[in-house]
Specification:
Number of helices: 4
Number of strands: 6
Strand content: 35-45%
GO biological process, one term: homoserine biosynthetic process
Mean pLDDT: 95
Number of domains: 2
Largest sheet: 6 strands, antiparallel
CATH topology of the largest domain: Alpha-Beta Plaits
Enzyme class: transferase
Shape: elongated
Radius of gyration: 17 Å
CATH superfamily of the largest domain: ACT domain
CATH class of the largest domain: Alpha Beta
Pathway: Amino-acid biosynthesis; L-methionine biosynthesis via de novo pathway; L-homoserine from L-aspartate: step 1/3; Amino-acid biosynthesis; L-threonine biosynthesis; L-threonine from L-aspartate: step 1/5
Keywords: Amino-acid biosynthesis, ATP-binding, Kinase, Lysine biosynthesis, Nucleotide-binding, Transferase
GO molecular function: aspartate kinase activity; ATP binding
Length: about 160
């Protein structure tokens, strides 16, 4: 198999937070992320659903060790947004695949998804850029995922 990835970065102890039923309001969304930043909480892998019936869901990741502070910070928005649901899923690993040439090679996401699928690894979240694909997986699947992806990582 072609070596199509230059670098694999692994981030352990990652929590996935989903904020569900947020009314479409850019000011509120900005306030939420500003309050997390003000609480010295670094977020990563941000993803937003398309609007449906005037509401969106936003998912993001953060390190497990700041989860308590994040929940306290996010809890303050329950009064402003009564429909807000905060779902928490901890004990995950983020795998980030990097290669400068990804932007010129179609199908890298598909190939990596096939590899993970064939290894029976559940993907909880995916974020991308032109040169990076990040997968959030169960921590228990980390070693199996790394071994599966090694066949496409350049030495």
């Amino acid at each position: 198999m072609d070596k199509i990835i230059s670098k694999l970065n692994i981030t352990q102890n990652v929590t996935l937070i989903t904020l569900a039923n947020i009314p479409i309001n850019n000011k509120s969304i900005a306030e939420i992320f500003t309050s997390l930043a003000d609480a010295d909480i670094n977020v990563d892998m941000i993803s937003q659903t398309s609007p449906l019936k005037g509401k969106i869901n936003i998912c993001f990741t953060l390190q497990d060790d700041v989860l308590f502070n994040a929940i306290q910070t996010l809890g303050t928005y329950k009064k402003q947004i009564p429909s807000l649901r905060i779902d928490v899923n901890s004990n995950n690993t983020k795998l980030s695949l990097y290669d400068e040439n990804m932007k010129y090679k179609p199908g890298i996401a598909a190939k990596t998804m096939v590899i993970l699928s064939e290894a029976d690894i559940d993907i909880k979240m995916i974020t991308t850029s032109e040169i990076d694909i990040s997968y959030l997986i169960y921590a228990s699947d980390e070693e199996k995922a790394i071994q599966s992806l090694k066949k496409i990582i350049k030495d």
